[in-house]
Amino acid sequence: MGTRIQIVSIVATVALFVIVFELVRRRRLQERYALLWLFAAVVLFGLAAWQGLLSKIASAVGIFYPPSALFVIAFGFILVLLLHFSVAVSRLSDQTKVLAQRLALTEKRLRDLEAGAEPEVREEERAPETVGRAPTP
Amino acid sequence: MRKSYLAIIPALNEEHTIASVIDGVRLHAPQFDVVVIDDGSSDRTREVSEAAGAPVIRHPFNLGIGGAVQSGFSYAQENGYDFMVQVDGDGQHDPAEVAKLIDRMAQNGVDMVCGSRFMEKTGYAAPRARRTGIRIFSAILSRIVGQQVTDPTSGFRLFNRRAIGLFARDYPHDYPEVEAVLMLHFHQLRMCEVPVTMYQRGGGVSSISTGKSAYYMIKVLMAIVVGLVRARPVVEPGDEPPVAAAHGI
């Protein structure tokens, strides 16, 4: 691996690590979501710095140009991170749904209480004049 | 002890039809309490419903039909209702036929009775693409659950307390009807169908437009496949939540 590409790789991975760490420090990024990023940055840094290991991995999987192996591994991390976010988004949307439902049910209850009525008003206690129209065909 | 009945009317922008649906339920199924579930309408659905005398559970934003109906299940369970019927707010279900569902449930004690458009010639003219889609679901689902399910996409359904409890806990997301049949099967709850007539929509826009039909087909087919291999098809009280709402990576 050429010295130049090695320097670029090291600088890039260090920058990634510093940026993620800084975001966590400023509480812009939760630790839970930062861990994968930091792990990826450390692994990529290790491979960029330790040429021998990267060459070994590259030849083991049949990649002739070792820096390409770095990209393949980085790509793998990106896939895992994206999947991680899809899972997180699914969880958030489930939680949002439950919250919206609870809010709606609680609002209904609150209105019932404010109106001084029991939550369930039996049909026969209602005024009969509301009955009449046929369903729309 | 007297049985208590709840009719939920899920509605999204149905200001033109909702009042007649409410009145229809009052007229034809007077033993039912009516609750409208306004799934984030931007029109006057809520005002019209309240003017017609029906209490409204209003979602702060649109959750989709699955979320709306599940709010109904939660409400029914929390208020101790014995039976819950779903009547769509667009006027395509005839409240006069709620009695058919009730009678059938009283006869054979199943946990869910579903109104089917396709058991008899009822003159329901669905677009051909939709009929074909429903037929495919029907064939697949009937094979899986081991009984004939002629109209798995029908939302005109009556549930007893056991089914209410199950679906309050866990109800599918976007297009829930087909998956709900599968869930009943996995939980060993029983269902049956009765022939009903469905009207063309009285107004508003169907939740399934033509453009979305393909997505609907694929999504529901995937849901069936996933349902078959799901890690925890039966979620009992005390288990981990069925939704993805648990923490973890």
Write the layout of secondary structure elements.
The complex is a heterodimer of chains A (137) and B (249).
Chain A (H helix, E strand, L loop, with lengths): L2 H23 L5 H19 L1 H11 L4 H49 L23
Helix pairs in contact in A: 1-2, 2-4, 3-4
Chain B lengths: L4 E7 L6 H11 L3 E7 L6 H7 L4 E3 L6 H14 L4 E4 L11 H11 L3 E5 L11 H18 L11 E4 H9 L6 H11 L4 E5 L14 H20 L20
Parallel strand pairs in B: 1-2, 1-4, 2-3, 5-7
Antiparallel strand pairs in B: 4-6, 5-6
Helix pairs in contact in B: 3-6, 5-7, 5-8, 7-8
Tally the beta strands of chain A: 0
Structural class of chain B: alpha/beta
Number of helices of chain B: 8
Fraction of helical residues of chain B? 40-55%
Mean pLDDT across the residues of chain A is 83
SS summary, helix count of chain A: 4
- Shape assignment of chain A: elongated
The sequence of SSEs of chain A as H and E is: HHHH
Low-confidence stretches of chain A: 121-137
Structural class of chain A: mainly alpha
SSE ordering of chain B = EHEHEHEHEHEHHEH
Main pleated sheet of chain B: 7 strands, mixed
Q: What kind of sheet is the major sheet of chain A?
A: none
Strand content of chain B: 5-15%
Query: Which regions of chain B contain 5 or more consecutive residues with pLDDT less than 50?
Result: 244-249
Computed CA radius of gyration of chain A, to the nearest angstrom: 29 Å
How would you characterize this protein structure?
The complex is a heterodimer of chains A (137) and B (249). The longest helix of chain A has 49 residues, at 66-114. Chain A is built from four helices and no strands. By secondary structure, chain A is mainly alpha-helical. Chain A is elongated and about 80 Å long. By secondary structure, chain B is an alpha/beta fold. Chain B is built from eight helices and seven strands. In chain B, α1 (18-28) links the parallel β1 (5-11) and β2 (32-38). At the A-B interface, α4 of A face α1, β2, β3 and α3 of B.
